[in-house]
């Protein structure tokens, strides 16, 4: 199980990438060089433990549940790929992305937020501020109903 966990984390690019270190598969953090290795466990007692070598240093290593490490990695990956819906933050992402593209000719790995999610969020805010009846009336009027 821990081998599958390490392979999963290694695919969370651009936070991690797969690496082979001394013949062992690892997930390497592109942030600080930390290496995550699978821990060989008995098939009957597989708990999914991984070995973490902080900044790649085997002298600063610990073992922990791979699911905990994967939880943090997935959370950071989602944060990286979700462009916030706040207008100011979204504008800053757009500006720096365009600036990076202008300076380098390459693009950043940022995903645009889902328009449907944004529409539902705005609809929810409208209902909170005006109440259901008023929100329905506003929507009907804006749609010409």
Number of strands: 5
Shape: elongated
Mean pLDDT: 80
- Rg over CA atoms, rounded to whole Å, is 22 Å
Strand content: 15-25%
Helix percentage range: 40-55%
Spatial ordering of strands, largest sheet:
1-2-3-4-5
Largest sheet: 5 strands, antiparallel
Structural class: alpha+beta
List low-confidence stretches.
Answer: none
Number of H- or I-type helical stretches: 5
- What is the string of SSEs from the N terminus onward? HEEEEEHHHH
Q: State the distance separating the first and last CA atoms.
A: 57 Å
Could you describe the 3D structure shown?
The chain is α+β, with helices and mostly antiparallel strands. It has 3 domains: 2-79, no CATH class; 83-113, no CATH class; 114-145, no CATH class. 49% of the residues lie in helices and 18% in strands. The chain has 5 helices and 5 strands, in the order αβββββαααα. It has helices at 2-10, 66-81, 87-104, 115-130, 132-143, and strands at 16-21, 24-29, 35-38, 49-53, 61-65. Strands 1-2-3-4-5 form a 5-stranded antiparallel sheet. Helix 1 (2-10) packs parallel to helix 2 (66-81) and helix 4 (115-130) packs across helix 5 (132-143).
List keywords for this structure.
5 helices, five-stranded antiparallel beta sheet, alpha+beta, 145 residues, 5 strands
How do you describe this structure in short?
This protein is of the alpha+beta class.
Give the helix/strand layout.
Elements: H1 2-10, E1 16-21, E2 24-29, E3 35-38, E4 49-53, E5 61-65, H2 66-81, H3 87-104, H4 115-130, H5 132-143
Antiparallel strand pairs: 1-2, 2-3, 3-4, 4-5
């Amino acid at each position: 199980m821990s081998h599958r966990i390490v392979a999963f984390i290694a695919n969370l690019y651009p936070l991690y990438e797969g690496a082979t270190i001394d013949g062992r598969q690892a997930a390497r953090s592109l942030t600080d060089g930390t290496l995550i290795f699978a821990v060989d466990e008995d098939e009957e007692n597989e708990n999914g433990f991984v070995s973490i070598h902080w900044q790649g240093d085997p002298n600063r290593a610990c073992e922990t549940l791979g699911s905990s490490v994967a939880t943090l990695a997935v959370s950071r990956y989602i944060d990286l790929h979700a462009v916030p819906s706040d207008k100011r933050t979204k504008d800053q992402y757009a500006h720096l992305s365009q600036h990076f593209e202008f300076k380098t000719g390459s693009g950043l790995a940022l995903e645009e937020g889902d328009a449907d999610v944004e529409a539902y969020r705005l609809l929810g805010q409208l209902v909170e501020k005006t109440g259901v009846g008023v929100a329905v009336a506003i929507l009907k009027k804006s749609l010409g109903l």
